[in-house]
Specification:
Keywords (chain B): Antibiotic resistance, ATP-binding, Cell membrane, Membrane, Nucleotide-binding, Translocase, Transport
Distance between the termini of chain B: 40 Å
Number of helices of chain B: 12
InterPro entries (chain B): AAA+_ATPase, ABC_transporter-like_ATP-bd, ABC_transporter-like_CS, ABC_transporter_ATP-binding, DrrA, P-loop_NTPase
Domain ABC transporter (chain B): 6-239
Radius of gyration of chain B: 23 Å
Strand content of chain B: 25-35%
Protein name (chain B): ATP-binding cassette domain-containing protein
Number of domains of chain A: 1
Structural class of chain A: mainly alpha
Family (chain B): Belongs to the ABC transporter superfamily. Drug exporter-1 (DrugE1) (TC 3.A.1.105) family.
Order of helices and strands of chain A: HHHHHHHHHH
Distance between the termini of chain A: 10 Å
Strand order of the largest sheet of chain B: 6-7-8-3-9-10
Helix content of chain A: over 70%
Shape of chain B: globular
Structural class of chain B: alpha/beta
Largest interface: A-B, 28 and 32 residues
Number of strands of chain A: 0
Oligomer: heterodimer
Shape of chain A: globular
Largest sheet of chain B: 6 strands, mixed
Radius of gyration of chain A: 19 Å
Largest sheet of chain A: none
Number of strands of chain B: 14
């Protein structure tokens, strides 16, 4: 909708206000924030010790598992984004925002900023837990930063898929369906086991999973087992392709709320 | 009439492409500055669609629509600077407290941090919410939530305020709290458009009422004018013995008496309330017919519609 230049001046302020709203919510719900941070650590412990093994993985399993878990956690971020956007839509909060003289897009930019911040925090906590369990990054500072960059890029793609799905569904009931679907998609990856240990057709599907590309590239950059060179390109390309599809279409959906 | 705060000419809106029904079908409306205007109609009449178009949330398919002197489509930003919206559901952040919510909306109106804080404090005081402290909205009662919602829609002292079913889901106490809050706005120069399906609510709050059905205005006037046009008040008489209904109809000192044998009920429009009441009681006593209940009441929305549209489909639907 063309609202004129008047909203542009406030783009940054409004986005920051929306981000701060999310931070205020965190301050109000420390337990929920803690659960969000601890849950991936629990998964890490479960797969590291309880289920354990890592079929088809040569070398130290923890060095294979931690990058996989980091990528998986980024994929699961989709749920959180979708949940938050759906909640605001359902409560009519987004309607109130839209009836106010705010900058276009500040609602979504604020959402993105808050979710990316939360994901960075999750990465730090999970990596810290991995470190405590004996995981070591071998790739040097450059490799480490590159790996973090790839993980956050993947999360950013998941974020816009989440916004798109929330705007598409618009109802809280459909979140459950997505919550259930996210699991097989997350687990049909090389997060826990090497594709070569799987039946051919499954291994192929798993290798094609964008999340597997990110995990493999991260393993490569951090010098862990299961890393294959040449995957960094794919780990950059896949999220960009997803963004090229879902970001504009999410923005279109948001604009179409006025139809 | 005073200068218009809201002008709607030939508003049309259709949902869902070709097969969809018209939510607004050439609706016209003019609301004078500083007045409270009720838009009265049943579910699906187009009230919410109208409010959403006026508050720039929805684009009309056709029509000229101005709010506070600005076109809602081409000058949406200018309109947003001048309006407040109270939607059907409390649009608040449930996890945050009252003050945090108000400050959030104040900052999004670009009031500046200090002004936003001061304004939040003022509104909490005014709507009797100052004692809520840091309690999250999630823990508020329905009435408190609605009052905070109303406070949030008044963050910038809007020229025009839209209220869409402001008391739906509230208990009688919550309803009277919200009504009192709305009344306190009147006189401050704010123009209020109140969409409701309750005749009583429009009667209580509105200076003028537009009755809407199937996306158009079918009647317009003050509450008194509308009531006069729709046969004014009614008297209901419930008999102890259904067998005496026929005899009672003949006795009643009024015409157009309707009979509902299942409920042993007689109902008739009345002109002079007190005379009708005493006349009925006296006539029944003299004939020795026992009544369980005799009551005066305002016409229901069904009856208003029955009269205005001349169709009885609504009565059948609700029966």
């Amino acid at each position: 909708m063309s609202i004129g230049a008047s909203t542009g001046a406030y783009a940054l302020t409004d986005s920051w206000t929306m981000t701060r709203r999310e931070l205020a919510r965190w301050a109000r719900q420390p337990a929920q924030v803690a659960v969000g941070l601890v849950f991936p650590v629990m998964l890490l412990l479960m797969f590291g010790y309880l289920v354990g093994g890592g079929r088809g993985v040569s070398g130290d399993y923890i060095d294979y598992l931690v990058p996989g878990m980091l990528a998986l956690t980024m994929a699961f971020g989709l749920e959180g984004t979708m949940l938050a956007v759906t909640r605001d839509l359902d409560k009519g909060v987004i309607d109130r925002f839209r009836s106010m003289p705010m900058a276009d897009g500040a609602v979504l930019v604020g959402r993105s900023a808050a979710d990316m911040l939360q994901s960075t925090l999750v990465l730090a906590v999970l990596a810290g837990a991995g470190y405590a369990l004996g995981w070591r990054a071998h790739g040097g500072p450059g490799g480490f930063l590159g790996a973090v960059g790839l993980l956050l890029l993947f999360r950013f793609a998941m974020l816009w898929i989440g916004i798109h799905l929330a705007l598409l569904a618009g109802r809280p009931e459909l979140i459950q369906a997505v919550q259930i679907l996210v699991w097989p998609v997350g687990f049909l990856s090389n997060a826990f086991a090497a594709p070569r240990s799987m039946p051919d057709w499954l291994g192929t599907a798993v290798e094609w999973n964008p999340m597997s590309q990110t995990a493999t590239a991260v393993r490569d950059l951090l010098g862990g087992p299961g890393g294959e060179s040449g995957h960094v390109g794919a780990a950059v390309l896949w999220p960009l392709v997803l963004l090229a599809v879902f970001l504009p279409s999410a923005l279109r959906r948001f604009a179409r709320l006025s139809r | 009439m005073a200068e218009a705060a809201i002008t709607v000419e030939g508003a049309r809106k259709k949902y869902g492409g070709k097969g969809g029904a018209h939510a607004l079908d050439g609706l016209d409306l003019r609301v004078g500055r500083g007045t409270v205007h009720g838009v009265l109609g049943p579910n699906g009449a187009g009230k919410t669609t109208l409010v959403r178009i006026l508050s720039t949330l929805l684009r009309p398919d056709a029509g000229r629509i101005e709010v506070a002197g600005h076109d809602v489509v081409t000058q949406a930003y200018a309109v947003r600077l001048r309006i407040g919206l109270l939607g059907q559901h409390a649009a608040l952040d449930e996890e945050l407290g009252g003050r945090e919510n108000l400050e959030l909306f104040g900052r999004l109106h670009h009031l500046g941090a200090r002004t936003a804080r001061a304004r939040a404090g003022e509104l909490l005081e005014r709507f009797d919410l100052a004692g809520t402290g840091r309690r999250p909205v999630r823990a508020y009662s329905g009435g408190m939530r609605r009052r905070l919602d109303l406070a949030a829609s008044l963050i910038t002292e809007p020229e025009v305020l839209f209220l869409d079913e402001p008391t739906t889901g509230l208990d009688p106490r919550g309803r009277s709290e919200v009504w009192a809050a709305v009344r306190s706005l009147v006189g401050g120069g704010t123009t209020v458009l109140l969409a409701t399906q309750h005749l009583e609510e429009a009667d209580q709050l509105a200076d003028r009422i537009s009755v809407v059905d199937a996306g158009r205005v079918i009647a317009d006037g003050t509450a008194d004018e509308l009531k006069a046009a729709t046969g004014a008040d009614r008297i209901d008489v419930v008999l102890r013995d259904a067998g005496q209904l026929g005899a009672a109809v003949a006795l009643l000192p009024m015409t157009a008496v309707s009979v509902d044998p299942d409920r042993r009920l007689l109902s008739a429009p009345v002109a002079d309330r007190m005379a009708a009441l005493s006349g009925v009681v006296q006539a029944l006593q003299e004939a020795g017919i026992e009544a369980e209940d005799v009551a005066l009441r305002r016409p229901t929305l069904d009856e208003v519609f029955l009269h205005l549209t001349g169709e009885d489909h609504r009565v059948k639907e609700s029966a």
